Input
Amino acid sequence: MTGRFGRAVVLGLLVLFSLSPLYSALVVASRDNADLARATPPLLPGGHLLEHVGELVERVDLAQAMVNSALIASAVAVANAVFCTVAGFAFARLRFRGREALFAVVLASAMVPTQLGIVPVFMVVDALGWYDTFAAAIVPGLVSAFGVFWMRQACLEAVCEELVDAARVDGCSLARVYWHVALPAVRGPAAVLAMLSFATSWNEFSWPLVALDPNDTPTAQVVLSRLAGGYYTDYPLVLTGVLVSVVPVLLLFVLFARKVVAVLARGAAETGR
Output
Protein backbone atom coordinates (compact mmCIF):
# COMPACT_ATOMS: atom_id res chain seq x y z
CA MET A 1 0.00 0.00 0.00
CA THR A 2 2.87 2.34 0.78
CA GLY A 3 4.37 1.71 -2.65
CA ARG A 4 1.05 2.25 -4.41
CA PHE A 5 0.36 5.38 -2.39
CA GLY A 6 3.79 6.79 -3.15
CA ARG A 7 3.39 6.12 -6.87
CA ALA A 8 -0.06 7.72 -6.80
CA VAL A 9 1.34 10.83 -5.09
CA VAL A 10 4.20 11.13 -7.59
CA LEU A 11 1.89 10.62 -10.57
CA GLY A 12 -0.59 13.13 -9.15
CA LEU A 13 2.15 15.73 -8.78
CA LEU A 14 3.32 15.09 -12.33
CA VAL A 15 -0.24 15.53 -13.62
CA LEU A 16 -0.65 18.80 -11.72
CA PHE A 17 2.70 20.04 -13.01
CA SER A 18 1.78 19.12 -16.59
CA LEU A 19 -1.68 20.70 -16.47
CA SER A 20 -0.61 23.87 -14.67
CA PRO A 21 0.17 25.82 -17.90
CA LEU A 22 -3.28 24.99 -19.31
CA TYR A 23 -4.93 25.95 -16.05
CA SER A 24 -3.02 29.24 -15.92
CA ALA A 25 -4.10 29.97 -19.49
CA LEU A 26 -7.70 29.21 -18.53
CA VAL A 27 -7.53 31.57 -15.56
CA VAL A 28 -6.10 34.43 -17.64
CA ALA A 29 -8.49 33.80 -20.56
CA SER A 30 -11.52 33.90 -18.29
CA ARG A 31 -10.53 37.15 -16.56
CA ASP A 32 -10.34 40.74 -17.75
CA ASN A 33 -7.33 43.04 -17.71
CA ALA A 34 -8.50 44.75 -14.52
CA ASP A 35 -8.32 41.44 -12.63
CA LEU A 36 -4.84 40.75 -13.98
CA ALA A 37 -3.62 44.21 -12.95
CA ARG A 38 -4.34 43.60 -9.26
CA ALA A 39 -1.50 43.14 -6.80
CA THR A 40 -2.72 39.61 -6.01
CA PRO A 41 -3.16 37.63 -9.22
CA PRO A 42 -6.37 35.58 -9.50
CA LEU A 43 -6.09 31.86 -8.88
CA LEU A 44 -9.56 30.79 -9.97
CA PRO A 45 -11.22 31.12 -13.40
CA GLY A 46 -13.60 34.00 -13.99
CA GLY A 47 -16.69 34.39 -16.15
CA HIS A 48 -15.38 36.17 -19.26
CA LEU A 49 -14.23 33.17 -21.32
CA LEU A 50 -17.22 33.04 -23.68
CA GLU A 51 -17.07 36.81 -24.08
CA HIS A 52 -13.43 36.58 -25.10
CA VAL A 53 -14.18 33.73 -27.51
CA GLY A 54 -16.77 35.91 -29.23
CA GLU A 55 -14.32 38.81 -29.42
CA LEU A 56 -11.67 36.47 -30.80
CA VAL A 57 -13.98 35.36 -33.60
CA GLU A 58 -14.65 39.00 -34.49
CA ARG A 59 -10.98 40.03 -34.43
CA VAL A 60 -9.45 37.24 -36.54
CA ASP A 61 -10.69 34.49 -38.83
CA LEU A 62 -9.57 31.74 -36.46
CA ALA A 63 -12.03 29.15 -37.79
CA GLN A 64 -10.58 29.27 -41.33
CA ALA A 65 -7.06 29.36 -39.93
CA MET A 66 -7.73 26.22 -37.88
CA VAL A 67 -9.15 24.49 -40.95
CA ASN A 68 -5.98 25.38 -42.86
CA SER A 69 -3.83 24.11 -40.01
CA ALA A 70 -5.85 20.89 -39.83
CA LEU A 71 -5.48 20.24 -43.57
CA ILE A 72 -1.75 20.92 -43.54
CA ALA A 73 -1.09 18.93 -40.36
CA SER A 74 -3.20 15.98 -41.56
CA ALA A 75 -1.34 15.81 -44.87
CA VAL A 76 2.02 15.98 -43.08
CA ALA A 77 0.95 13.30 -40.58
CA VAL A 78 -0.23 10.84 -43.24
CA ALA A 79 2.84 11.46 -45.42
CA ASN A 80 5.24 10.91 -42.52
CA ALA A 81 3.48 7.71 -41.51
CA VAL A 82 3.75 6.35 -45.07
CA PHE A 83 7.13 7.62 -46.28
CA CYS A 84 8.98 7.13 -42.99
CA THR A 85 7.63 3.59 -42.74
CA VAL A 86 8.88 2.82 -46.25
CA ALA A 87 12.30 4.32 -45.50
CA GLY A 88 12.50 2.64 -42.10
CA PHE A 89 11.66 -0.74 -43.62
CA ALA A 90 14.32 -0.26 -46.30
CA PHE A 91 17.01 0.70 -43.78
CA ALA A 92 16.04 -2.11 -41.41
CA ARG A 93 15.44 -5.14 -43.64
CA LEU A 94 16.69 -4.46 -47.17
CA ARG A 95 20.29 -5.03 -48.18
CA PHE A 96 21.77 -2.49 -50.56
CA ARG A 97 25.11 -0.81 -51.06
CA GLY A 98 25.70 2.27 -48.95
CA ARG A 99 22.83 1.58 -46.56
CA GLU A 100 24.73 2.45 -43.39
CA ALA A 101 26.33 5.54 -44.90
CA LEU A 102 22.98 6.82 -46.17
CA PHE A 103 21.36 6.21 -42.80
CA ALA A 104 24.21 8.13 -41.15
CA VAL A 105 23.45 11.05 -43.46
CA VAL A 106 19.79 10.91 -42.41
CA LEU A 107 20.77 10.98 -38.74
CA ALA A 108 23.22 13.82 -39.36
CA SER A 109 20.46 15.87 -40.98
CA ALA A 110 18.53 15.66 -37.71
CA MET A 111 21.36 17.58 -36.02
CA VAL A 112 20.90 20.60 -38.30
CA PRO A 113 18.58 23.26 -36.81
CA THR A 114 15.42 23.78 -38.83
CA GLN A 115 15.96 27.54 -38.96
CA LEU A 116 19.15 27.09 -41.02
CA GLY A 117 17.16 25.54 -43.85
CA ILE A 118 14.44 28.18 -44.10
CA VAL A 119 16.25 30.36 -46.66
CA PRO A 120 17.27 27.63 -49.15
CA VAL A 121 13.93 25.84 -48.82
CA PHE A 122 12.09 29.11 -49.43
CA MET A 123 14.21 29.72 -52.54
CA VAL A 124 13.20 26.32 -53.89
CA VAL A 125 9.54 26.88 -53.03
CA ASP A 126 9.55 30.31 -54.66
CA ALA A 127 11.27 28.96 -57.79
CA LEU A 128 8.55 26.31 -58.10
CA GLY A 129 5.84 28.96 -57.79
CA TRP A 130 4.44 27.47 -54.59
CA TYR A 131 4.56 30.60 -52.42
CA ASP A 132 1.33 31.12 -50.48
CA THR A 133 0.00 27.66 -51.36
CA PHE A 134 -0.63 24.56 -49.27
CA ALA A 135 2.15 22.80 -51.19
CA ALA A 136 4.69 25.23 -49.72
CA ALA A 137 3.56 24.38 -46.19
CA ILE A 138 3.19 20.62 -46.73
CA VAL A 139 5.97 19.38 -49.03
CA PRO A 140 9.00 20.34 -46.83
CA GLY A 141 7.51 18.32 -43.97
CA LEU A 142 6.53 15.17 -45.87
CA VAL A 143 9.32 13.17 -44.24
CA SER A 144 11.54 13.72 -41.21
CA ALA A 145 14.82 12.27 -40.01
CA PHE A 146 13.28 11.46 -36.64
CA GLY A 147 10.43 9.62 -38.34
CA VAL A 148 12.83 7.52 -40.42
CA PHE A 149 14.86 6.63 -37.33
CA TRP A 150 11.69 5.86 -35.34
CA MET A 151 10.26 3.55 -38.00
CA ARG A 152 13.62 1.86 -38.61
CA GLN A 153 13.79 0.89 -34.95
CA ALA A 154 10.18 -0.28 -35.09
CA CYS A 155 10.89 -2.45 -38.15
CA LEU A 156 14.00 -3.93 -36.52
CA GLU A 157 11.89 -5.03 -33.54
CA ALA A 158 8.64 -6.04 -35.22
CA VAL A 159 9.51 -7.23 -38.75
CA CYS A 160 11.17 -10.64 -38.81
CA GLU A 161 14.02 -10.86 -41.32
CA GLU A 162 13.30 -14.54 -42.02
CA LEU A 163 9.70 -13.69 -42.85
CA VAL A 164 10.83 -11.05 -45.34
CA ASP A 165 13.24 -13.52 -46.96
CA ALA A 166 10.50 -16.16 -47.15
CA ALA A 167 8.13 -13.71 -48.82
CA ARG A 168 10.75 -12.77 -51.38
CA VAL A 169 11.44 -16.47 -52.10
CA ASP A 170 7.71 -17.01 -52.66
CA GLY A 171 7.80 -14.36 -55.37
CA CYS A 172 6.45 -11.31 -53.54
CA SER A 173 7.60 -7.96 -54.86
CA LEU A 174 9.06 -5.37 -52.50
CA ALA A 175 5.78 -3.46 -52.56
CA ARG A 176 3.81 -6.56 -51.50
CA VAL A 177 6.36 -7.43 -48.82
CA TYR A 178 6.00 -3.92 -47.43
CA TRP A 179 2.20 -3.94 -47.64
CA HIS A 180 1.51 -7.46 -46.34
CA VAL A 181 4.46 -8.09 -44.00
CA ALA A 182 6.01 -4.86 -42.73
CA LEU A 183 3.09 -2.46 -42.52
CA PRO A 184 0.77 -4.68 -40.40
CA ALA A 185 3.62 -5.24 -37.93
CA VAL A 186 4.37 -1.55 -37.37
CA ARG A 187 0.90 0.00 -37.48
CA GLY A 188 1.18 1.05 -33.82
CA PRO A 189 4.47 2.97 -34.14
CA ALA A 190 3.26 4.46 -37.44
CA ALA A 191 0.10 5.75 -35.74
CA VAL A 192 2.18 7.30 -32.95
CA LEU A 193 4.47 8.93 -35.52
CA ALA A 194 1.44 10.33 -37.33
CA MET A 195 0.14 11.82 -34.09
CA LEU A 196 3.50 13.38 -33.24
CA SER A 197 3.86 14.73 -36.78
CA PHE A 198 0.36 16.24 -36.62
CA ALA A 199 1.13 17.98 -33.32
CA THR A 200 4.48 19.26 -34.61
CA SER A 201 2.97 20.60 -37.84
CA TRP A 202 0.01 22.12 -35.98
CA ASN A 203 2.34 24.02 -33.62
CA GLU A 204 4.73 25.13 -36.37
CA PHE A 205 5.01 28.91 -36.60
CA SER A 206 8.20 30.02 -38.36
CA TRP A 207 7.84 28.14 -41.66
CA PRO A 208 4.14 28.98 -42.30
CA LEU A 209 4.96 32.59 -41.49
CA VAL A 210 7.56 32.55 -44.27
CA ALA A 211 5.85 30.30 -46.82
CA LEU A 212 2.32 31.73 -46.58
CA ASP A 213 1.12 35.30 -47.05
CA PRO A 214 0.45 36.64 -43.53
CA ASN A 215 -2.09 39.12 -44.93
CA ASP A 216 -4.34 36.24 -45.96
CA THR A 217 -5.63 33.59 -43.58
CA PRO A 218 -2.64 31.30 -42.97
CA THR A 219 -2.37 28.78 -40.11
CA ALA A 220 -3.80 29.17 -36.62
CA GLN A 221 -0.43 29.95 -35.01
CA VAL A 222 0.30 32.78 -37.47
CA VAL A 223 -3.18 34.26 -37.02
CA LEU A 224 -2.85 34.15 -33.24
CA SER A 225 0.47 36.01 -33.44
CA ARG A 226 -1.45 39.04 -34.72
CA LEU A 227 -3.20 39.32 -31.36
CA ALA A 228 0.10 39.97 -29.61
CA GLY A 229 1.24 42.69 -32.03
CA GLY A 230 1.13 46.45 -31.61
CA TYR A 231 1.80 48.61 -28.58
CA TYR A 232 -0.70 46.87 -26.32
CA THR A 233 -1.19 43.14 -25.75
CA ASP A 234 -4.59 41.91 -24.61
CA TYR A 235 -3.40 38.87 -22.65
CA PRO A 236 -6.87 37.45 -21.92
CA LEU A 237 -7.66 37.49 -25.65
CA VAL A 238 -4.28 35.97 -26.54
CA LEU A 239 -4.67 33.15 -24.00
CA THR A 240 -8.21 32.54 -25.23
CA GLY A 241 -6.80 31.95 -28.70
CA VAL A 242 -4.20 29.62 -27.23
CA LEU A 243 -6.87 27.56 -25.48
CA VAL A 244 -8.99 27.31 -28.60
CA SER A 245 -6.05 26.33 -30.79
CA VAL A 246 -4.84 23.61 -28.43
CA VAL A 247 -8.18 21.77 -28.38
CA PRO A 248 -7.56 19.71 -31.59
CA VAL A 249 -4.18 18.49 -30.34
CA LEU A 250 -5.68 17.49 -26.98
CA LEU A 251 -8.52 15.62 -28.69
CA LEU A 252 -6.00 13.83 -30.91
CA PHE A 253 -3.98 12.77 -27.89
CA VAL A 254 -7.09 11.50 -26.11
CA LEU A 255 -7.97 9.37 -29.13
CA PHE A 256 -4.45 7.93 -29.46
CA ALA A 257 -3.43 7.95 -25.78
CA ARG A 258 -3.84 4.21 -25.30
CA LYS A 259 -1.89 3.46 -28.48
CA VAL A 260 0.90 5.88 -27.51
CA VAL A 261 1.27 4.35 -24.04
CA ALA A 262 1.29 0.82 -25.45
CA VAL A 263 3.96 1.59 -28.06
CA LEU A 264 6.20 3.48 -25.63
CA ALA A 265 5.82 0.77 -22.97
CA ARG A 266 6.73 -1.91 -25.49
CA GLY A 267 9.76 0.09 -26.59
CA ALA A 268 10.86 0.52 -22.96
CA ALA A 269 10.47 -3.22 -22.39
CA GLU A 270 12.59 -4.05 -25.44
CA THR A 271 15.25 -1.58 -24.27
CA GLY A 272 15.25 -3.17 -20.81
CA ARG A 273 16.01 -6.56 -22.30
Notes: The radius of gyration is 23 Å. The chain is about 75% helix and 0% strand. The chain has one domain: 45-272.
